[in-house]
Design a protein that fits this description.
The complex is a heterodimer of chains A (154) and B (212).
Chain A lengths: L12 H14 L8 E6 L2 E8 L2 H12 L6 E4 L2 E2 L7 H14 L8 E6 L2 E8 L2 H12 L6 E8 L3
Chain B lengths: L2 H13 L8 E7 L2 E8 L2 H12 L6 E8 L10 H14 L8 E6 L2 E8 L2 H12 L6 E4 L2 E2 L5 H16 L8 E6 L2 E6 L4 H6 L11 E3 L1
Parallel strand pairs in B: 2-3, 5-6, 5-7
Antiparallel strand pairs in B: 1-2, 4-5, 8-9, 9-10
Classes of the chains: A alpha/beta (154), B alpha/beta (212).
Chain lengths: 154, 212
């Protein structure tokens, strides 16, 4: 007979923190040198700076996936490495969205203020809204994306 | 659609994707198929480039021939370190059972073996292994065993072992699912003869085949 019973792990904050640190350090897309992690009663707080929004989001996703983490409080700052003007960023997002057949670019308004993006207007499906938001997230220079898109099929 | 236009659109899309980190990617277009060649800095950047090309109107197929070459001048982890890191990621993950997945790394190529209980976990495991520093490629040999039935897991393991001994079949393009003794083998093999002879089971019909 094999005894496969196991004792449920009790996650100590210190252990969770060490795991989080290792996870971000071993990731091939995040530079952990400017990242500070603290864990208190299962709530992980991320602080520090990254050079792009998608890396900030990825950090949250990584932290959320670690067993023992109940909640992630991401206070990381995004400071882009290049210096894209707001106009350049808006154009790049517009072009990216334009390539996507799910979204009618003429019905989407893109406002950029110091790298912070606000998307408004109308898309046909939730999937299209997601695609538009993703286009913005992966565009260099973007520090934040506010999704104010309305989903409507007419 | 015009090949030049598709090529231009793909190039632009790649240039505007921050995830690629200035990777040197060569784009060829043949009809509605895009061929990506060159070098990506990591596994996930390689997949991001593929997704970018797929998003361009007029593209129906993307052949991803990008090779992952680690950025020079940096300290890269050893195979053993990569292997331990991948195992830890699985162990610490809240949606995967690390005990049923095994990882081996050789020259930066990570091979995943064992079983998971759903297809999305198989894909998640691949993504996680590909996100670890030093991984240049992921060979995903995980079988999907929905019930985590011990007998099914043994059967899946045996089939994968048998297929591996047979060097003709490329495991990367084959997917195995076992549920209550019922085996589904799907994917692509180079020739029908391999489909029949290469597998340790008798085929009923070509294509996706089922065996009891």
């Amino acid at each position: 007979m094999k005894n496969r019973l196991f004792v449920e792990e009790d996650f100590a904050d210190e252990d969770i923190k060490n795991r989080l640190l290792q996870i971000v350090t071993m990731n091939n897309q995040i530079d952990p040198s400017n990242l500070k992690i603290s864990v208190s009663e299962g709530v992980a707080t991320l602080e520090g700076a990254v050079d792009s929004l998608w890396k900030k989001i990825l950090s949250s996703e990584l932290a959320q996936s670690v067993a023992g983490v109940r909640q992630v409080n991401n206070q990381m700052k995004v400071s882009p490495a290049g210096n894209q003007s707001d106009e350049e960023i808006a154009n790049n997002i517009k072009n990216n969205i334009d390539k996507n057949y799910l979204v009618d670019v003429d019905r989407v308004h893109i406002q950029v203020n110091n790298g912070s993006v606000r998307l408004s207007g109308v898309v046909r499906t939730p999937l299209a809204a997601r695609a538009a938001v993703n286009s913005a997230i992966y565009t260099p220079g973007v520090t934040e994306v506010a999704n104010r898109l309305r989903v409507s099929s007419d | 659609m015009n090949e030049d236009l598709i090529r231009k659109n793909v190039k632009n899309q790649l240039a505007r994707d921050d995830r690629l980190g200035g990777a040197d990617i060569h784009v060829e277009v043949h009809g509605d198929t895009v061929l990506l060649k060159g070098v990506a800095p990591n596994h996930n950047a390689r997949l991001a480039a593929e997704a970018d090309a797929e998003a361009i109107p007029g593209v129906t197929h993307v052949k991803n021939q990008l090779e992952v070459v680690l950025p020079p001048g940096e300290d890269h982890p050893s195979d053993l370190e990569i292997e331990n890191n991948i195992k830890n990621i699985f162990r610490w993950h809240n949606r995967l059972d690390g005990k049923t997945i095994n990882a081996m790394v050789e020259d930066g190529e990570a091979t995943l073996k064992g079983s998971v209980d759903s297809y999305w976990k198989k894909m998640l495991a691949e993504e996680l292994a590909g996100s670890v520093k030093g991984t240049v490629r992921v060979v995903n040999k995980l079988a999907v065993v929905p019930g985590h039935d011990a007998m099914d897991e043994v059967v899946a393991g045996d089939i994968i072992d048998a297929l591996e001994r047979n060097r003709i079949v490329d495991m990367r393009s084959i997917h195995i699912k076992v549920e209550a003794g019922y085996v589904i083998i799907s994917g692509a093999v180079p020739r029908l003869a391999y489909a029949a002879g290469g597998l340790p089971v008798r085929p009923l019909y070509a294509g996706s085949r089922r065996h009891r």
